[in-house]
Write a structure and sequence with these properties.
With 120 residues, the chain is mainly β. The protein has no helices and 11 strands. The strands form 2 sheets. Strands 2, 4, 5, 6, 9, 10 and 11 form a 7-stranded mixed β-sheet that branches. A hairpin with a 5-residue loop joins strand 5 and strand 6. The protein is elongated and about 45 Å long. It starts with a strand and ends with a strand.
């Protein structure tokens, strides 16, 4: 059994910052890629940022230069530092983690989601 717990969402004014966290716990052998997605009302869930097990990162064009994804493998945690937030960043943010249960078997898990609202 694996659980992902997200935290750090909230209400922030345009131009402000937030830091999201997603901590994995349970029967974890090791973690692969760790991603952040977001879903605005009435829209599909889109990939925001991704970090590989070796630390390589990728970002959606809409957040490049403003968001930074990082991971702490000692804590099984992925972070999303969000700066210069815009109203269009408003969405529910979800983490998605590739969890290896043993050397060969892996499964993707979703966090419960955390609301980010950017408004004055």
């Amino acid at each position: 059994q694996v659980h992902l717990v997200e935290s750090g969402g909230g209400l922030v004014q345009p131009g402000g910052s937030l830091r999201l966290s997603c901590a994995a716990s349970g029967s974890i052998f090791r973690l692969g890629a760790m991603d952040w997605y977001r879903q605005a009302p009435g829209k599909q869930r889109d990939l925001v940022a991704s970090i590989g097990s070796g630390g390589s990162t990728n970002y959606a064009d809409s957040v490049k230069g403003r968001f930074t994804i990082s991971r702490d493998n000692t804590k099984n945690t992925v972070y999303l530092q969000m700066n210069s937030l815009k109203p269009e960043d408003t969405a529910v943010y979800y983490c998605n983690v590739d969890v290896f249960l043993n050397f060969y078997s892996h499964q993707y898990y979703w966090g419960q989601g955390t609301q980010v609202t950017v408004s004055s």
